[in-house]
């Protein structure tokens, strides 16, 4: 990464923070940011000390997707073609979604275009009450990418997904919460601290169980119903043998005996 990376990775106390750092372009992706995003996501997921990941951003917006101005100018946002650029960013999204590490998003301000895909790569999203979230691809004559068509309908339902991609609509924070797109709406000044608090609960709790629960839900479309039941049984059987589960079960049993 460069001395002033467009995506920073900071890790401490079992929490990895992936920070989008291109505020002058509303954290829109160009080729450099795409590469740094994928490096950061892979490093966070592959770090055995990391129990939870937080995605947040600098500036007044979470992420505006691709750098449209650079596309218009033929700049480095289209180095090797938009398809290749999307492919690089997709690697990072796939790493996060396919991992057994819970991902928390602190999405302040506007989230639009491919930024919606970044938001959908999180498992728990905290937004500010002034946040706006939308697709806006069609306004540019473009089609959704960065996992939007792969994940949006699963998150909010097919009809609502169509409403969002077939219009220039930006959801308010309250609407995004009502649709199930985000988990919490807080004061704009508290987005970061609330996301950190949620991450702390995961990191200090039964983080491996949280991670496996995330994996089971995220990977379910790849299995039949019967296969999913079998995978649930296998996973809970494996979890029962861990020291983490044994200690927590013993503590619960002791507390119940005293009641």
Automatic annotation (TrEMBL):
InterPro entries: ClpP/crotonase-like_dom_sf, Enoyl-CoA_hydra/iso
GO MF terms held by the record: catalytic activity
Membrane-traversing stretches: none
Protein name, entry field: Enoyl-CoA hydratase
UniProt superkingdom: Bacteria
Listed PANTHER family: EG:BACN32G11.4 PROTEIN (PTHR43459:SF1), ENOYL-COA HYDRATASE (PTHR43459)
Lineage: Bacteria, Bacillati, Actinomycetota, Actinomycetes, Propionibacteriales
Gene3D superfamilies for this protein: 2-enoyl-CoA Hydratase, Chain A, domain 1 (3.90.226.10)
Pfam families, A to Z: ECH_1
């Amino acid at each position: 990464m460069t001395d002033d990376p467009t995506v920073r990775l900071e890790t401490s106390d079992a929490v990895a923070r992936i920070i989008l750092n291109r505020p002058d372009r509303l954290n829109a992706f160009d080729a450099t940011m795409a590469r740094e995003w994928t490096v950061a996501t892979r490093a966070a997921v592959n770090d055995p000390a990391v129990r939870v990941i937080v995605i947040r951003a600098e500036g007044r917006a979470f992420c505006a997707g691709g750098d449209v101005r650079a596309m218009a100018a033929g700049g480095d946002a289209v180095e090797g073609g938009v398809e290749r650029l999307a492919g690089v960013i997709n690697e990072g999204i796939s790493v996060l979604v396919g991992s057994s590490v819970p991902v928390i998003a602190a999405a302040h301000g506007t989230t639009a275009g491919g930024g919606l895909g970044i938001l959908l790569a999180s498992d728990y999203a905290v937004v500010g009450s002034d946040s706006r979230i939308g697709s806006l691809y069609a306004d540019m004559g473009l089609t959704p990418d960065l996992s939007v068509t792969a994940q949006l309908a699963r998150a909010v339902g097919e009809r609502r997904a169509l409403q969002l991609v077939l219009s220039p609509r930006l959801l308010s924070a309250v609407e995004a919460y009502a649709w199930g797109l985000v988990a919490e709406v807080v004061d704009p000044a508290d987005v970061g601290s609330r996301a950190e608090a949620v991450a702390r609960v995961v990191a200090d709790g039964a983080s491996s169980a949280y991670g496996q629960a995330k994996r089971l839900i995220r990977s379910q479309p790849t299995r039949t119903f019967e296969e999913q039941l079998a995978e649930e049984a296998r996973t809970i059987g494996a979890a029962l043998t861990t020291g983490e589960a044994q200690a927590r079960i013993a503590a619960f049993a002791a507390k119940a005996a005293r009641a």
